[in-house]
Amino acid sequence: MLHDEDKRGETDMVTTKGGECVQVHQSKEAVDLTHYILQVFGEESSDEEVYQKTAFPLVLHMLNGGQATCFVFGQTGAGKTHTMLGFPGGSPGLYALAAWDIFTHLYATNTAPALLVYVSFLEIYCGQLYDLLDHRKRLFAREDGKGVVQIAGLREIPVDTVASLMEVNCWGTERRTQGVSGVNPVSSRSHALLQIQLRNPKQQPAGRVWCVDLAGSERAVDSREPDRQTCIEGAKINQSLLAVSN
Q: What is the DSSP letter of 216?
């Protein structure tokens, strides 16, 4: 990299880790005209490496009182849910890594008695909202007087350890809508939204992060002998993914 490029904060476009692996850092422009670097991870990349480069900065922003959202998207069967949950008996996923950093920060800064952690978990299935922590109760999105969208009736559970947060997460994940598609024998048929929120003793918000595990996109032509419900689910999934991308 040239000296002038380094002064401007520019980064290398290509890095190599040896062997036949090449990592490309592509410069992109978001819809709000801000610039960012598109990072590509290979099959050998661990969940922790992906977390450190993507979700970890969002967790830090949340710990400083901000609000952030982490989306995981891709084709069905690509491994999105495994990336979020990790593998049983193996490496932790993004949920566990984020929980570990949150509680480590709170206890290291002696703010654990002052800041409380709450978790909520809902899914969007065929355009409807359901609470995964409250017997799949139907939920409704409402806009308050300040123009902020609120999920009316969403259950929030207080947690005080990584283990308790992951227990709530696993409990909700078991209630997420799944089905069989022509592409994947066990396919998530809904978008799962996990919210981790910090509050002070007066119950005022002090930081929030949403972790969104989107259902996988799929083409109707890829589905083998789909039934009517599977076709409806696929159409709703693709419609909502298009709305997010726009």
A: P
